[in-house]
Design brief:
With 871 residues, this protein is of the alpha+beta class. The protein contains 25 helices and 34 strands. It starts with a helix and ends with a helix.
């Protein structure tokens, strides 16, 4: 049975049982801060399980895209481990429970209309105290007693070990279904019965939930391998062609008969990782150094390393993206729309890593040789940090290579180095935890506040539903400087969401005045944080809620301008320029979007003209509520990672159509003017534009006029001639610098003359010298020569090449023994050239992109030496 057929049969079966078929949630749920990637099918239903939202249905079924990295070292090595996989699931929110879940699972697996598996090949496990589930299996399903195994809380409870070790919160026993293969039993389905709330430590700490739930998960790839009679998930119909395609590209024939063969493991790992990265990058998660971006970088670089170890010298992973899209086109046809963009991102990351991998591998082998000579068994944190910082080697790859040589890895030492250098990536997975708060009882007993802010900035007769102080519900509060949170039954205040900041203002009646400093969402509830300025407030009070209307107007100007900017970016750069994040405040906006390179000045000017042209056209801003599917049909922009309800709000202004819950103007002319302030890189593949509107735009223009007018006066030229005059002065300065730099050319540099010209700071000979287009190895040799002839000495060479700067910093041995560190020195100095670096205590290197900052860098270098001398 084909994998696509299994997926569709599963969803159809549970639809026949009254479950609502829901689409897969996104792979990267930016709405959920507790996880980096969607780890399970239940993730999109967390609020349903906890009763935190209105239930439009009580039964659901999904096939969910998931990504986990907890067992990444086993990917390719075992038959069943993946990073990316699909999870089939069926769910009950206070509806059906154990009996139905077990009966339906058995029916789906054994009925010839569905999977038709031989019942004699199936067995089950239950939690050792779950006699109810055991009785259903034995007495109703008629599963022989010898094919039912009782397991403890480590194996058959969710979360594992919850009864004894926690965490507190929703939990319950599991029942797993196993299939007997020729080489052993394989778990194919896990039925989780969330029936308890854990409170405190044992005994008697499992309290029955008033509403019991079902959460089941069946790995699609695993059940496909069972039904297709193959010995590993990687040989099913949607994965083996990808593994073989990887072999073709790497010129290595895949041997599917020997699962222990090393190149076979590498090809399976490449297939898994490129599939995971294709899905993630499709959702605009690009490789980088933080959180989910770091995970994608780690997966790509692991796969590149596999290729290099099979002889690949050029980027190759990107060539597999079309194959991923082809194999997954039935459930995910949208992958075909972004093939070119995904290939570009993967190819760029491959280029960056392949450029350093050979040198890095040699360095790692050198580390291993040094460890063998010193009889060391654990890789030092300093060595792994150097590999990460200098060669881009993820520490997990270093750890894996060390493990192959039976060596340990000092993770604590690595993290200490990262923290010391301010580069901790936050690459670890987050935990999926359910948290309870002071408003929990209010949320269960009342509807979320009615938001009236689209129509008005003032609401009379709102009722105080709750007061929260110090994390606890209170009935009354008196004036003080303490933070107080007020919840109303209806409000005009916009809670911070979707990049738009929350409203400020005032909540009051004749007895009190509450100043609102921030409005935000707590679940589906808008809450107001601030200070009770005077009087006394009680729950049940009727109040006037009044938003700061002028501030709201500025926010709305910036938000409407953000939509116009997004439209203009996609028009001038391409459809790939999708929003990655935004911050909308009063008359100022920050917009992050996907793009691989800086926008040239001419294009940026055209984008700004486009935005202001739409402002001058005073285009009406239309707001319509419609079903999500209808919004898709009208072409509304939808952002990956956002969680949208079934009924959505579509904002239109001319050609711009986006799903948006923010506040907007009546027409674009009310924006007044939009001025782009800056365009910069945020991370690999992500750019950021900062712009101002309305009053802030006017202030910006006036500031620029004042600067140009001042420069005109200083240079004694008309304002129109300021730029040509500055260009002439800079050109003259460059020529003068060039004359000086000839002294430092390779054939003319005199080590003795540099030492003679050294500035004495305390007793340290300090040599700071700028060069151009020099070979870095030559400069390193020069530093070594100086250190042999001068002592104590501190040297920095600043080499300019292609408008970029490389700093080489060296310290003599006696300074290092005193505790001085060239890495610390070069990091301080490189800030002046907009760079950063690393290396060893005696020799460090940094790169930067601001050659004009070299004089200031040299000043900072001297200050550092002077401060060290003073200690």
């Amino acid at each position: 049975m084909k994998t696509n057929e299994i997926r569709e049969k599963y969803l159809s079966f549970f639809e026949s049982k009254g479950c609502v078929r829901r689409p897969s949630d996104v792979l990267v749920p930016r709405w959920d801060p507790s996880v980096l990637f969607t780890p399970a099918g239940m993730n999109q239903f967390k609020d349903h399980f906890l009763g935190r939202c209105k239930l439009d249905f009580t039964r659901a079924t999904t096939c969910q895209k998931c990504l986990r990295t907890g067992d990444i070292d086993n990917v390719g090595r075992t038959a069943y481990h993946h990073t990316f996989f699909e999870m089939l699931g069926n769910f009950s929110f206070g509806d059906y429970f154990k009996r139905e879940a077990i009966h339906w699972a058995w029916e789906f697996l054994t009925d010839k209309k569905w999977m038709g598996i031989n019942p004699d090949l199936l067995s089950a496990t239950v939690y050792l105290d779950d006699h109810e589930a055991a009785a259903i299996w034995m007495d109703e399903i008629k599963l022989p007693k010898e094919r039912i195994q009782y397991l403890d809380e480590e194996d058959n409870f969710w979360p594992s070990m919850a009864p004894s070790q926690g965490p507190d919160g929703v939990c319950g026993p599991c029942s797993e279904i196993y299939y007997k293969t020729p080489i052993g039993e394989v778990e194919i389905w896990n039925l989780v019965f969330t029936q308890f709330n854990r409170v405190g430590n044992p005994p008697d700490n499992l309290r029955p939930l008033p509403s019991k739930n079902i959460d089941t998960g069946m790995g699609l790839e695993r059940v496909a391998s069972v039904l297709q009679g193959v010995d590993t998930n990687y040989h099913i119909d949607i994965l083996r062609p990808l593994v073989e395609a990887a072999g073709d590209i790497c010129s290595v024939k895949y041997n599917g008969e020997d699962l222990a063969e090393e190149n076979g493991r590498r090809l399976r790992r490449i297939a898994d990782h490129v599939r995971a990265c294709t899905f993630a990058i499709h959702e605009n998660v690009y490789p980088g150094n933080k959180e989910e971006k770091y995970v994608i970088r780690r997966l790509l670089r692991r796969a590149v390393l596999d290729g290099v170890q099979m002889g690949m010298k050029e980027p190759f992973l990107f060539k597999l993206v079309p194959k991923v899209a082809e194999l997954m086109k039935v459930p995910y046809p949208e992958l075909s729309e972004t093939i070119e963009r995904v290939q570009g991102i993967i190819s760029g990351e491959e280029d960056n890593f392949i450029g350093t991998i050979d040198t890095g591998l040699k360095r790692i082998e050198h580390v291993f040789d040094e460890m063998a000579n010193a009889k060391l068994a654990v890789v030092r944190g300093a060595d792994s940090f150097e590999m990460y910082q200098t060669y881009g080697f993820p520490p997990e790859l270093f750890e894996m290579m060390a493990a192959e040589k039976n060596l340990g890895f000092d993770w604590d030492g690595f993290k200490e180095e990262m923290q010391r250098h301010g580069e901790l990536s936050g690459s670890g997975e987050k935990n999926l935890l359910f948290k309870h708060d002071a408003l929990e009882s209010i949320k269960k007993g009342a509807n979320p506040p009615e938001f009236l802010g689209y129509e008005t900035t003032e609401t009379e007769g709102a009722k105080v539903l709750a007061l929260v102080k110090d994390g606890k519900l209170i009935d009354t509060a008196s004036a003080s400087d303490d933070l107080l949170t007020v919840v109303l039954d209806k409000t005009p205040f916009y809670g911070e969401k979707g990049g738009q900041v929350g409203d400020t203002g005032e909540i009051a009646n004749e007895r009190f005045v509450f100043s609102v400093a921030a409005s935000r969402y707590d679940g589906e509830f808008i809450v107001h944080d601030g200070k009770l300025e005077s009087g006394e407030v009680h729950t049940g009070d009727l109040v006037l809620a009044k938003v700061d209307a002028q501030r709201r107007l500025g926010i709305s100007r910036a938000h409407s301008a953000t939509h116009l900017l997004h439209y203009a970016l996609r028009k001038h750069l391409g459809a790939h320029a999708e929003q990655q994040g935004s911050k909308v405040d009063a008359d100022i906006l920050r917009f992050d979007f996907t793009h691989n390179k800086a926008i040239d000045r001419e294009t940026l000017i055209e984008i700004e003209k486009e935005v202001n042209g739409m402002i001058l056209d005073t285009i009406p801003v239309q707001s319509d509520s419609m079903e999500l599917e209808e919004a898709r049909k009208v072409g509304a922009m939808m952002l990956f990672g956002e969680k949208y309800p079934d009924i959505v709000r579509v904002i239109r202004m001319g050609g711009s159509k986006e799903l948006c819950g923010g506040t907007h103007l009546k027409n674009t002319g009310q924006i007044g003017f939009c001025k782009i302030v800056s365009e910069e890189s945020v991370s690999a593949g992500t750019r950021r534009i900062t712009a101002v509107t309305g009053k802030e735009a006017l202030a910006r223009i006036q500031q620029m006029d004042e600067i140009v007018s001042g420069a005109s006066g200083i240079l004694r030229v008309p304002m129109a001639e300021v730029l040509p005059r500055l260009e002439n002065m800079i050109d003259t300065l460059k020529k003068l610098r060039k004359q000086v730099e000839t002294v430092a050319r390779k054939g003319e540099m005199s080590i003795e003359s540099l030492i003679e010209a050294a500035e004495m700071i305390g007793d340290v000979k300090t040599i700071l010298w700028m060069t151009k287009d020099q070979d870095l190895n030559f400069l390193r040799e020069a530093i070594d020569q100086i250190r042999r002839k001068a002592n104590p000495a501190a040297i920095i060479f600043a080499n300019v090449q292609d408008e970029k700067v490389t700093l080489l910093a060296g310290l003599t041995r006696d300074l290092v023994e005193k505790g001085w560190n060239a890495v610390d020195w070069v990091r301080v100095v490189s800030k002046q050239i907009q760079g950063g670096g690393g290396g060893r205590p005696d020799l460090a290197q940094a790169g930067g992109k601001k050659p004009e900052g070299i004089p200031e860098a040299f000043k900072a270098a001297k200050v550092w030496i002077a401060e060290k001398n003073a200690k």
